């Protein structure tokens, strides 16, 4: 089963800053590493808290994707937060990222391909960016389970450029599907 969406914006930062800079001309994905020139690119973990625990862990967070609908919701709730400011590399529209199972492959543009590894777990940095924002990116479903809305994480399978306006094609893995969990 497939789904389609579009790249709204792309972002990167060479430093371990919370927000990432919008790259109007695009970014380049590198297989097994992530976004060329981004501080979180690497075969092993790059997020500081994870490096402190075990720097040899594989990097399951090479690319961070967030659906633009989240920014729409946050602005309506009174937060001034826009694409790139939550640290994502790719802002998307038209594809429900949170509903995809683990292992879903996303073709971005003409050649890049990533595989979704799991959910981004909102951290304390979000509230340091704007007080109350952590609660706004979390909610409870009808069964009372926590829903993390801060996007999905992925690894790069095939490299290539990714630009605003590029098409996204999602291909779900074979059944049985594994639900997304924080990585």
TrEMBL record:
One of its GO terms (molecular function) is molybdenum ion binding. Pfam families: MOSC. Coiled coil: none annotated. It comes from the Bacteria. Residues 22-171 form the MOSC domain. PANTHER family: METAL-SULFUR CLUSTER BIOSYNTHESIS PROTEINS YUAD-RELATED, MOSC DOMAIN-CONTAINING PROTEIN. This is MOSC domain-containing protein. It comes from Ramlibacter tataouinensis (strain ATCC BAA-407 / DSM 14655 / LMG 21543 / TTB310).
């Amino acid at each position: 089963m497939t789904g389609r969406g579009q790249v709204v914006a792309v972002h990167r930062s060479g430093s371990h800053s919370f927000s990432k800079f919008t790259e109007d001309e695009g970014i380049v994905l590198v297989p097994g590493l992530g976004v060329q020139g981004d501080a979180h690119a690497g075969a092993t973990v790059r997020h500081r808290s994870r490096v402190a625990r075990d720097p040899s862990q594989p990097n399951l967070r090479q690319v961070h994707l967030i659906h633009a609908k989240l920014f729409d919701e946050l602005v309506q709730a009174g937060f001034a937060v826009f694409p790139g400011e939550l640290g994502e590399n790719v802002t998307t529209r038209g594809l429900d990222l949170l509903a995809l199972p683990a292992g879903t492959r996303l073709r971005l543009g003409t050649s890049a391909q990533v595989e979704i590894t799991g959910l981004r777990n909102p951290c304390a940095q979000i509230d340091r960016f704007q007080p109350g924002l952590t609660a706004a990116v979390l909610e409870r479903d009808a069964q009372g389970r926590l829903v993390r809305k801060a996007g999905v994480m992925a690894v790069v399978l095939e490299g290539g450029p990714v630009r605003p306006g590029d098409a996204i094609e999602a291909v779900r893995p074979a059944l049985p599907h594994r639900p997304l969990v924080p990585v």
